[in-house]
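Build the 3D complex.
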Amino acid sequence: MRSPQKIELMEKIISLCKRRGFIFPSSEIYGGFGSGYDYGPLGVELKQNIKKAWWKEMIYKHENIVGLDSSILMNPQVWRASGHLKAGFSDLLVECKKCHKRFKGDEVKNVCPECGGKLTQPRKFNLMMKTFVGPVEKESSLIYLRAETAQGIYVNFKNVLNSMRLKVPFGIAQIGKAFRNEINPKNFIYRTREFEQMEMEWFCHPKDASKFFDYWKKERIKWYQKLGIKKEHLRIKEIPKDDLPHYAKEGADIEYKFPFGWGELEAIHNRGDWDLSNHSRFSGQDLSYLDPETKERYFPYIVETSAGVDRSLLAFLSEAYQEIKGARTKTTKPTKEVEIVLSLNKDLAPIKIAVLPLVRNKKELVKKAKEIYQTLKIFFRCQYDEVGSIGRRYRRQDEIGTLFAVTVDFETLQKEDVTVRDRDTMEQERVKIKDLVEFFKKKLED
Ligand code: GAP
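Done.
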């Protein structure tokens, strides 16, 4: 049973997301659409920043990992070879005989959690989403929306290997949408039918796979911590042999302590030679690897790190969400109000700098502030705001995680300097306008 505080925190995050333009329910004017969500202007910035941070970490920091962007729609043989069309990629579905609500069999006991009615016997339900190519909807034009981005990588193994002159071990990474016909989408963007994955497939010698499986678990945990997630909010859950996905020899989940409880954030698998050997068999193309030095020929084993973009975003938001009682900002009068601060990591914050004229009815201040905004926005994601008291504007920026506020006041006009306020320490310092770009570059660089 979830505690009311946990539900309340989740509701507060959902409400902030809607109110401040992070995430909206999909097709809301038509009453929404099941588990669909749309990322608003700030949500899309946050999402891009997460993807950028991952890309930088996985690809730019490793000379032997390269990127790929493969298509969502693929030859349906891919999914036969991968085993996704079989029972292994199914959930157990149960239905309440009274209210007809459907649930995942492993998440409920034998009574309906909604109305107490009796549940049907569980039956297997395949999660692949179907569609048709061409004008006629017949069996031969049936195709699938990809259920993981990984398969696009495996079928390009030889293309990438040959065109990039790589040697095992090496990795191929990609970010993209995946689709699953989930029985029970839930917890906001945690489990949806359309979501994004950041996957890296590491091709290695079979004897090294277990070693790399351990290595990548550690590396991936470090990434979340580097971007602000506390150690105690992360844990590794090793998957027992009987619960492994159909393709895996070893598996572990990185779990995060979400407001609704511990949940999977990322999956790490040792997939053995499942994928390359099956694709070889089904396609008739030899996807084995010939070691140029030892002349040994083998199917490389694959160790994958598979993270959800949406789940990461929810984890970063949950971690950053803070409520601070009483006024934080010196310029606001003492108050019992609660201030919301989103203490997002500097690389993730959607807006880096807000430029604020102290008041908006002084032409010179507004002009100066706009000039500063025009200069800074070339280098950093900035927002200009002149509406409301300065205290209120600081709070509005804190609530969306803006790192710095630049305030243009009367002294600015004489001394050509501004006040820079830090979101977290709330310390204010005077900085010359001419030095602002360098000042922020230093603050925001690695
Ligand atoms: N290629 C391996 C793979 O797809 P997975 O454990 O099925 O492994 C990996 O999925 C990650 O994708 C999960 O840890 C999660 O972050 C994300 N994910 C999976 N299903 C999801 C869903 N229905 N909604 C949102 N994210 C999902």
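The chain has twelve helices and 23 strands.
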